[in-house]
Amino acid sequence: MSTTPARTVPDLDDPATDPFDVAHAAAEHIADVTGVPGHDVALVLGSGWGGAAELLGDVVAEIPTHEIPGFAKPSVLGHVATTRSIRVERPDGSVRHALVIGGRTHLYEGKGVRRVAHGVRTAAATGCTTVVLTNGCGGLHISWRPGQPVLIKDHLNLTATSPLEGGTFVDLTDLYTPRLRELAKQADPDLPEGVYAQFRGPHYESPAEVRMAGIMGADLVGMSTTLEAIAARHCGMEVLGISLVTNLAAGISPQPLSHEEVLEAGQKAGPRISDLLARIVKSL
């Protein structure tokens, strides 16, 4: 009796490994487990955004994210560790498949920038041409109260690193695709736009760092998204970024910051922003 040999997956942490080989191995695993040969749009759901997946359509399959080659178990409370394949029916009657990646890896977890970028590279390998990156963040504008979604129009990468290796030069002009931002505004004309600044974390930004970011042009501060967006652009994907203001940033908020505050704000805003995101994705 013959058996199919187990697939050998290159070690993502080995500098000699091409990270795109691991992404393709991950994509093959997803296709095998879900029975869906290809996906069209990917979503990375940050704090507060998890409920959107249930509104997108019918779940074809669920996979514990850490069982997919190259992924690790999330180490942060409130981050979902399940990746789902979802059948999405669009308003024109056509059908697409969304890949909802749960349990993103943050740079502050110390697992390396390759792990941070692995989710979007895997999405591209499954066939996705669009990725929606969401996060929970601190807001620099007093008028943006907790629960306010904001479209990302540009970013400041303050992590002192890049997901790109060697002489890989990628233009980031209009990284956050204007066409997708216009579609999002059709779903909610009142959506504001802002510049997102990513710090390394895991500590929250100091008041002085927040003031610095504001002087540099930031409207939002957080610990994710920009490295994934750069990797997605390198893969040729269109990018839509949406932040949920879960708290006023340090020095603007009169209260000390806490992760519990972030989770609470996300839970309160969850139903509204999940409905918004589902409507946006169906229109993409």
TrEMBL record:
GO-annotated biological processes: nucleoside metabolic process
InterPro entries linked: Nucleoside_phosphorylase_d, Nucleoside_phosphorylase_sf, PUNP, Purine_phosphorylase, Purine_phosphorylase-2_CS
Enzymatic reactions: a purine 2'-deoxy-D-ribonucleoside + phosphate = a purine nucleobase + 2-deoxy-alpha-D-ribose 1-phosphate
Taxonomic superkingdom: Bacteria
The keyword Phosphoprotein is annotated on this UniProt entry: no
Enzyme Commission numbers on file: 2.4.2.1
GO CC list: cytoplasm
Record key words, sorted: Glycosyltransferase, Transferase
Residues at which phosphate binds: 47, 79, 104-106, 136, 224
Entry annotated with the keyword Nucleotide-binding: no
UniProt GO molecular function: purine-nucleoside phosphorylase activity
Pathway annotation from the record: Purine metabolism; purine nucleoside salvage
Residues where a purine D-ribonucleoside binds: 205, 247
Domain (Nucleoside phosphorylase) ranges: 41-282
Family membership: Belongs to the PNP/MTAP phosphorylase family.
Function: The purine nucleoside phosphorylases catalyze the phosphorolytic breakdown of the N-glycosidic bond in the beta-(deoxy)ribonucleoside molecules, with the formation of the corresponding free purine bases and pentose-1-phosphate. Cleaves guanosine, inosine, 2'-deoxyguanosine and 2'-deoxyinosine.
SUBUNIT field: Homotrimer.
Name of this protein: Purine nucleoside phosphorylase
